[in-house]
Design a protein that fits this description.
Length: about 525
């Protein structure tokens, strides 16, 4: 029975209901039941010996804590076991195929990790004298060179720490450029296609723009004529994802860019799907003015759970002068950072300001450059080709059972809708949760919103044909069960996970953030 703490405190039996034996501990061999750390902690137990503090005069006044700190007490082995057991209940890219569409969860080579842990990168501090970190700055410069070559950009802004932060940076540069032209009061609208990432309209609104949607065509792409009809002297920019969130390349991108520029606006491209075109297409050659790059997606750095991430922004010649502070400058063999606006303006720049205290996520930079150097230009191109090949292999292998939203060759991800589930009593969510029982993380579901009951699958280039074949066979088996009316396989799934189906909507809207002992 669930209590008001939002989770079962008693062990939950999973598996074959015909096995009524159960176990005394609630564990099932190596599938161990793990209570909350507060439930297993004890008062007066600690794995650390701390001496009593000497006499001191507190300076907190009325803010001083009056009660105990309330942390659970465990011995050191108990604490280690707790977190190891929790880690064993996690799914990650080292566990199996991670088919999240639009997220690019690819293999993370351990070479990258080894290089990021070299003392010259891992043990430095952002406040060290620049003369002592020239190697790290040289790496930043080399990374920027690779990113400029891959995108065709004039400049790379390294400070943004993730995709949404990069979006903010690129759109802030556009806003600064518009202000420099004296049009800040008139160009207040940003065009956002219906298939865009949800962060796109949010970023535009955060910067004070109003959002004007652009509908998608029946084939899932944006019509240049629809963009032209939405343009006017009040439009500052368009935010377009290419390839788009339906996994399709926007074939009219040049015509869209031309119309946008003719109207005096700017073209921002969401770079979340760069893994499909890396080494194949340079976005700036298509007319893009600004595009963020998810280093933690395209260039293999692990991500998820809030980080780490890095979202450098590629800027065209129209926007390069507005890159944020700090940025790198090379004087002969010496690298420096331009930290203040006065110095930047003396050099002819007009920086939009400072986005973060320091110069981005250095550890991610090391991993990303290691990925680039180990692949080389031809290897990066092949990674994109293989990602597209893998997605189309899945599309071709499942298209006769599961309805493909847009029946045409896709890019790095394939999008299914729920039309094939009509009349089965099985929903997209049911199907995704049943995939957990088969040992897979579910694909992205109900996104993009332009497709009903969407199931978005991105295999990336990391997966072998053998792993793809097993994944495809699993989906086909689930599909056959759904079409055969075997709803018990799906209702309430997952059945074998440590916890069964949760009320995710209630958890999001009524989160229980503080544990209290049961009465």
């Amino acid at each position: 029975m669930l209590n008001d703490q939002g989770r079962p405190t008693a062990p939950v039996r999973n598996g074959d209901d015909s096995d009524t034996r159960g176990t005394f501990t609630g564990n099932r061999a190596l599938a161990q039941e793990e209570a909350l750390i507060f439930e297993i902690g004890r008062v007066g137990t600690t794995g650390v010996d701390i001496e009593e503090p000497t006499a001191f005069a507190p300076r907190l006044g009325g803010l001083a804590r009056q009660d105990g700190i309330g942390l659970p007490g465990l011995s050191e082995p108990e604490a280690v076991r707790h977190y190891v057991r929790l880690s064993q209940q996690n799914y990650g890219i080292d566990t199996g195929l991670f088919p999240l569409g639009s997220c690019t969860m690819k293999h993370n080579p351990r070479l990258n990790e080894a290089l990021a842990r070299l003392p010259g990168f891992a043990d430095i501090h952002p406040l060290q004298p620049l003369s002592t970190v020239q190697g790290a700055l040289a790496l930043f410069d080399e990374l920027s060179r690779w990113l400029r070559e891959l995108t065709g950009a004039e400049a790379i802004a390294l400070p943004p720490k993730a995709g949404a932060h990069g979006e903010f940076c690129g759109m802030a540069a556009i806003k600064a450029a518009i202000a420099a032209r004296g049009e800040a009061a008139t160009r207040t609208v940003v065009l956002v296609p219906d298939s865009a990432h949800g962060t796109n309209p949010a970023t535009a609104a955060l910067l004070g723009f109003s959002v004007r949607p652009v509908p998608a065509r029946a084939d899932g792409t944006v019509d240049a004529a629809a963009v032209a009809a939405a343009l006017g002297p009040d439009v500052a920019a368009i935010m377009l994802t290419n390839p788009n969130t339906c996994g399709l390349f926007e074939r009219d991108v040049r015509a869209i860019a031309h119309a946008v520029h003719e109207a005096g606006a700017f073209f921002y491209c969401d770079g979340a799907n760069f893994n499909a075109i890396m080494g194949k297409v340079r976005p700036m050659d298509l007319g893009v003015d600004a595009m963020h790059l998810n280093l933690h997606k395209t260039f293999s750095t692990p991500h998820g759970g809030g980080g780490p991430g890095a979202g450098p922004v590629a800027l065209s010649g129209r926007l390069a002068a507005f890159a944020p502070l700090p940025y790198l400058k090379q004087d002969g063999e010496t690298f420096t950072l331009v930290e203040d606006e006065a110095s930047a303006r003396e050099a002819g720049a007009a920086p939009l300001g400072r986005l973060t205290a320091f110069h981005g996520q250095a550890g991610v930079f090391v991993r990303a450059l290691a990925f680039m150097l180990s692949h080389g230009a031809d290897g990066l191109r092949q990674a994109s080709e293989d990602a597209v090949l893998n997605a189309n292999y899945i599309r071709a292998s499942l298209g006769n059972l599961m309805s493909v939203a847009f029946d045409r060759p896709t890019m790095h991800e394939v999008l299914f809708d729920d039309a094939w589930l009509k009349g089965t009593g099985v929903t997209t969510l049911d199907f995704a949760k049943a995939l957990i029982d088969e040992g897979y993380h579910p694909m992205t579901v109900y996104f993009p919103l332009v497709v009903h009951g969407a199931m978005l699958v991105e295999p990336t280039e990391s997966e072998s044909k053998a792993s793809l074949d097993l994944f495809i066979a699993t989906l086909r088996d689930l599909a056959h069960s759904a079409l055969a009316g075997e709803t018990e396989r799906f209702t309430g799934a997952p059945h074998y996970a440590p916890r069964s189906r949760l009320d995710e909507t209630r958890a999001a809207r009524q989160p229980v953030l503080r544990w209290a002992p049961p009465p």
